[in-house]
Each structure stands twice: as C-alpha cells, then as structure tokens.
Amino acid sequence: MLPKITVITASYNSEKTISDTIESVLNQKYPNIEYLIIDGNSSDNTISIIKQYENLFEGRLKYISEKDSGIYDAWNKGVKMAQGSWISFVGSDDIMFEDTFSDFIEFAKANENVNFISSKYLLVTENLKPIRVVGVPWSNSMNSYCCIAHVGSLHHKTLFDKKGIFDSNFKIAGDYDFLLRCRDIIRPGFVDMVSANVRDGGISGRQISRVARETVMAKKNNKSQGIFKIYTDYCIMIFKFVVRTNIINKLK
Questions:
Q1: Nearest-angstrom CA–CA distance, 35 and 61
Q2: Are strands 33-39 and 61-65 parallel, antiparallel or unpaired?
Q3: Smaller CB count within 10 Å for the chain: N or C?
Q4: What percent of the chain clears pLDDT 90, i.e. is strictly above it?
Q5: Predicted pLDDT at 9
Q6: CB atoms within 10 A of CB 73
Q7: Alpha-carbon gap, residue 62 to 59, rounded angstroms
Q8: Residue 241 Cα distances to 72, 220, 232, angstroms
Q9: Is the dihedral of CA 46, 84, 200, 229 positive or negative?
Q10: Using H for helix, E for strand and C for coil, what is the string for 182-239?
C-alpha cells in the first residue's frame, strides 16, 4: 500500500491565491494524499473558496477555521491531526507541480533510510514571473542558514514524534528552528528537480529584519554556531536581502 502523505496549508485571508494552491494539491498524480487546511479565522472569502473543493477531494480534504497565534500554531494543529506517515507544508500562495509527491515517494522507496526529502522551487513574483531557483541538498551550511527548500518537503512523522512540534514563539523561522533541532537524527534526501512555484510575497519575504533575528534565535537555541559566526551571518543576510530586493524591484 502506498504511504499516506498529509499536506498541511495554513491560511489567513488568502482568497487571492488559495485556489491555485488547492488545485495544485488536487492535481497531484500521487493518489494517497490527505489535505488539511488550517485557517486562522479569515474574514474574506477564503473559507467559501475552500468549501468549493470539498467534493472534488472526495473526503480527503479537511479544514478548520479558528483564531491562532501564527503559522506555526496552525502547522502544529495540522501535525496533531495528520494521519499520514509523511507530512508536507505548502503555503496558501504556493503552487506544487503535479509530479512532486509521486517523485518524492519513488525516491523514498529507493532510499529507505531517509526521513526528510527536499528539492528545489522557483521563486516567482506575484504575477508568476520567474526570479530564481532556490534549494540545495542538506549540508553543514544548515548550521548557518536554511539552505534547503522547505516548501513541499516531506518530513517523516517520526521526526515530530521524537523532537516535538514547532515552537510557536517563532513567527517566521520556526521551520528552521525545528530542522536544527532534528539535525542529530535527520537523514536527508534531495530530489534534484524544481517542485513548486513560490510567490515572493510571503511573510519571510516582507520582514527580513525579523527573519534575521529569528534565525539568530534558532541558532542560539540549538547551539549550531558560535556567537561571533552567528552575528557575522546576520550581517551578511541583511546585505543579501538589500541586493535581492533591488533586483526584484527591477523585474516588477
């Protein structure tokens, strides 16, 4: 029997983009997918849009809508609900390519020791104009910054069983904190393909100073680097963001 994948999307007032995300999950070639949408009590048409897809998923789509304290609180609710042996997190403005989860499971079958699988994604503008490809294999660079492409990646549920859930004190870098927490038991695999379009309009793209501060906090919490290196990387991150913002503004 094919292993079940639980795909979790956190949403809040996502009426402009969530249809693209839902359809990209619906159109996956991999058949054994449970889809959980954890909504933060949206005040726009997000919920009515979600309801339009319920019948199309034939019981595989579940959603809740209630106040939460941020994306990691929402993800934690999803993890607790998840029935799959693999768990993936997809943003409410991300678009997964239809072969992604089939290719991931094929990789998992061929590499039975892995408990985390990532790939690459194409960063795009809000109008889906390409910017750059993001994502490389897990390496020691993870101690400095989140070099892997986390969108759509597969986490074996045993990682959460052994290391707990996301720290909801984080608002942006909680996934990086979790992965650093797992680094002593994680057995990463990498599928060398672009698996999704990711709009450059998410929380992390808008709040670089907070991203940088939370990255520092994650590295301190998990003792991944010495203090001098942590703050050197902090300065480099801010500089790179300034350069990248200038490039993106020219593309718009």
A1: 5
A2: parallel
A3: N
A4: 77
A5: 98
A6: 19
A7: 7
A8: 24, 22, 15
A9: positive
A10: CCCCCCEEEEEEEEEEEECCCHHHHCHHHHHHHHHHHHHHHCCCCHHHHHHHHHHHHH
pLDDT of residue 205 exceeding 50: no
Tokens found for residue 238: 């801010």
The owner of tokens 């892995």 is 114
93, 200 contact by CB (below 8 A): no
3-state secondary structure of 154: strand
Phi-psi region for residue 9, left (φ > 0), alpha (ψ -120 to 50) or beta? beta
**Which residue did the predictor score with more confidence, 191 or 216?**
191
For CA atoms 136, 164, 70, 61, give the dihedral sign.
positive
CB 194 within 8 A of CB 120: yes
d(CA 110, CA 132): 29
Six-digit token string for 107: 């990789």
Show the 3-state SS of 39-75. ECCCCCCHHHHHHHCCHHHCCCEEEEECCCCCHHHHH
Q: What is the pTM of this model?
A: 0.90
pLDDT, tens only, 126-177: 889 999 999 999 999 999 889 999 999 999 999 999 999 999 999 999 999 9
Average pLDDT over residues 74-95: 98
Rounded Cα distance between 108 and 114, Å, is 7
Whole-angstrom Cα distance, residue 41 to residue 62?
A: 15
Tell me the residue length of the chain: 252
* Cα–Cα dist 30/65, whole Å: 27
CB-based contact 198:126 (threshold 8 Å): no
- Looking at residue 116, its amino acid is F
